[in-house]
Amino acid sequence: QLSICADKEQNIRHAREAIQTAADGGSKLVLLPEMWNCPYSNASFPIYAEDIDAGDSPSSKMLSDMAKSKEVTIIGGSIPERSGNHLYNTCCIYGKDGSLKGKHRKVHLFDIDIPGKIQFKESDTLTPGDKYTVVDTDVGRIGVGICYDIRFPEMAMTYAARGVHMICYPGAFNMTTGPAHWELLQKARAVDNQLFVATCSPARNPSAGYVAWGHSSVIGPFGEILASTGREEAIFYADIDYAQIKERRMNMPLDHQRRGDLYQLVDLTFTT
Ligand SMILES: NC(=O)CCC(=O)C(=O)O
Q: Atom 6 of ligand 1 has which residue's CA nearest to it?
């Protein structure tokens, strides 16, 4: 859970040091926050964006170098990605050999308006991704979503159906929806699907334009909090035993008890 500043090079240096510390502390998988190389704002995204596919991305290069040198899988939070005329909110996933194993472009953009509390419209600058992302790593099958993606249970269900062990959500909830929903959503995605959920937020900076809630966590398949932190910058660790997925699914075989004859994901638009 990193502190993020306006200086991109400093953010990259800082993330590199944090990955090094986490790997030296025994991590096999490291998860970074949403938009860790820039302030979270529509004004910043175009300025800090990098072209990952063109190989013109110092942030991604650092992640790849660190994955290789520390032999660690990295779920690289997210950065603004430039691709042609479009910008995306993108998470790169690196294997421990430094290879790019996957790239998740945030599918559900954060466009909300809670009057007097929080208004944000990512779609002013960003384009949504059009694919789900599942990667096989040395530390299991990982599904990736970014922040607002966590609000869509269909995505997590699809990941569960694809055999994902853990869903990683880099995310930056805010001071209104954070206390109301952040922990609830993490637990819900874990319990509904009987798998692990890991989240990573920026640390809270009360003087930032967008104030992140923090409270990154790792949740087990029974909804148990395996590790979590508060608002400050922190590197924290969890021991994850995927055997618990099987055990919980044996205890409560939700998948076999599902009544697919009564409900299907056909048209789930709210009726008002
Ligand atoms: N960066 C985001 O997607 C924020 C999502 C959020 O705060 C929410 O309430 O959802």
A: 173
Q: Which of 106, 110, 181, 186 to mutate to test the pocket of ligand 1 (most atoms within 8 A of CB)?
A: 110
Pocket around ligand 1 at a 6 A CB cut-off: 34, 110, 147-148, 151, 172-174, 177, 181
- Cα of 56 from ligand 1 centre, angstroms: 28
Reported ipTM: 0.99
| Residue 241, domain CATH | 3.60.110.10
Dihedral over alpha carbons 94, 33, 104, 169 (to 10 degrees) = 110
Q: Tokens 């500043």 identify what position?
A: 5
pLDDT one-digit tens code per residue, 176-189: 999 999 999 999 99
Q: What's the angle, vertex CA 146, arms to CA 143 and CA 150, rounded to 5?
A: 80
Does residue 144 lie in a domain region? yes
**What is the chain's Cα-based Rg?**
18
Structural domain boundaries enclosing 168: 8-255
What is the value of pTM for the model shown? 0.97
